[in-house]
Prior knowledge:
alpha+beta; Nucleotidyltransferase, domain 5; 7-stranded mixed sheet; 21% strand; globular
Amino acid sequence: MLFLAFDIGTSAIKSTLIAQSGGVVDFAEHKYPPVNGAISSTEQNPETWWSGAAHCADELFSRNPAVCAQVQAIGVSGHMLGCLPVDNNGSPLRPAMLHSDTRAVAEEAEIADAVGRETLYRRTGNTLSAQSTLCKILWLKRSEPELYAKTSRFLQSKDYLTAKLTGNIDSSDYSDAAHAELADIHRLTYMDDVLSELGIDIRKLPALHRGTDIAGHLMPGAARALHLTQGIPVIVGGGDGACANAGSGIAPGSMYCCLGTTAWLSYNEKRPVLDPYMRIFDIPSLDGADIGIFGTMQAAGRCVDWAKKLFHISSDRHFNELAALSPAGSDGLVFLPYLEGERSPIFDARARGVFFNINADHRREHFCRAVFEGVAYALRSILDVHRLSVQVTDLRVIGGGSNSALWRQILADIWGVNVWTTSVKASSVTSLGVAMAASVGVGAYKNLAEASAAITLMEKTAPIPENGQLFDKLYDTFLQLYPRVRALY
């Protein structure tokens, strides 16, 4: 058995062929044009997701023509907190608003006044922000009322691609709905009362299912585009956070960090964990059986990409080589990595980046290393909140950032824990998660835990004690920066 997974990112779509054992058979990636808009209004043409999926399939099956008949199910993962209005035929009515889009600040304030931030957090397990789909839908209703009236469904990225595969526009999952602040995380149903109070038509939201459920079957046109046989089951799928949870293979009591364009720290519990200060949030697992407890920072690998362009650095390898020339602590240079606002633990869409304590001796390599360290400090501020509920001594790291041995050492030193890589390739963790959900959906495994049994820990990076003492002092500086500059934003 093979399972085909699509993972929709903000800069590229990835497609992975995964065996029932969890092994990656082949992988393809297709990059899109740059995201449209300023920081506060980021949009993307959803047709690029579909054309990218077809491009990936061309690449995969031209290299592996004999395996087409072995694909037993398809699953889609995608970036969360989006907002894509479609008509009755599933055609987009406008570009998709992405998770980094924060133009709905007035709607955020309106919802906070009408419903209450604490009430919404207790109901959804998620912190109200302008990035939430709830705010975006209300913004569209206020700003583009004619388009809102024409909208049949508001979809997330993975829902749109699933609809292109199956023709079913009436399908979404618990993970995307709860994180979007549309669904009650305790009951796993839409909040009819809240939506009604805000004047949002609940009929414009797709039906909710487990991510492991079957959304439909591959239509003839989509089958031709992907070089597959029509009728292959397509599961509902899930948001990238829920899929990464599954693909990391974490068991109860363990934690992981996904270090990609954005980054998060997460572990699983049977029930939501509600922080009294609303600094973390909760996302149902793909099968709805567990709750992932998340703290997410907005820009992680995004900061590295920005610094590479700023300093004319051609590759990740060169960036790592330069950063390695700087000593631990970057000779006192501290980076606040809030290039696009921040989510956990401060939830401030207006926050922006800062380099602090620059002196005339700092060179390009200091800035490179300070970016690595600044992301690690921001993640530690999330880890500190998680540590109020769980004890952490070991933490697995997945995502593209985990390929950097230097960054893993920095994380271990700043967090004070052992950092592990896993047997899953960094580029395939999220895809593996949705492929595992597909394998459960067609009965190849009983549940996600059984499907993830083959995932193992690989390389360990232990913290260096003397570095930890230095970083503790610099972390104190980091924690003081945002409160001191917040009013200036």
